[in-house]
Amino acid sequence: MKKNTSIFITILGIILLAVGLYMVRTIIDPQGLIKTMPYLAIGFGCGMFGHGLGELYNRHVIGKDPQLAKQIEINKKDERNVMLANTAKAKGFDIMTYVFSALLLAYALMGCGWEIVIPFVVAYLFVEIYAVYSRVKIEREQ
Fold it and tell me: pLDDT tens digits for 66-78?
């Protein structure tokens, strides 16, 4: 099942990439949303293609070496590795909070249009509110 999903994601990525490149070459005078649509398709297509191909390659390598597969599974479930990963995510979130707010302030001070600043503000507030919600939920569980 997982292999089929990886193949599907890889093929869908190739299709999105091709559609995006086709749109870039054929649309002569893009207006509005059509200006960004080809580049979004290219970006998502490249990301999906890389992710799917990486998963397929990992499965291929692990399939050849069962000892390596066992070691990788042990490393994924090791408490120390999980703690290190969670600590790294927490530090990344802390830095992201300050960088994102500084970027928002810079965009606002540069006089960018509100159609650019407001979605950034909404996304920033969503992330921060979710962080507070998660913290309250975790504290209740303990």
Answer: 888 888 888 888 8
Chain centroid offset of residue 126 CA: 16
31 backbone φψ class: left, alpha, beta (φ>0; ψ -120 to 50)? beta
Task: Please tell me the predicted confidence (pLDDT) of residue 2.
Answer: 67
- Taking the C-alpha atoms of residue 41 and residue 35, their distance in angstroms, rounded to an integer, is 11
> Is the whole model's pTM more than 0.90, yes or no?
no
- C-alpha pair distances (Å), 21 with each of 7, 95, 100: 21, 35, 31
Q: Can you tell me the distance from the alpha carbon of 24 to that of 54, in angstroms, rounded to the nearest whole number?
A: 27
Q: Which domain holds residue 109?
A: 79-142
Do 63 and 45 belong to one domain? yes
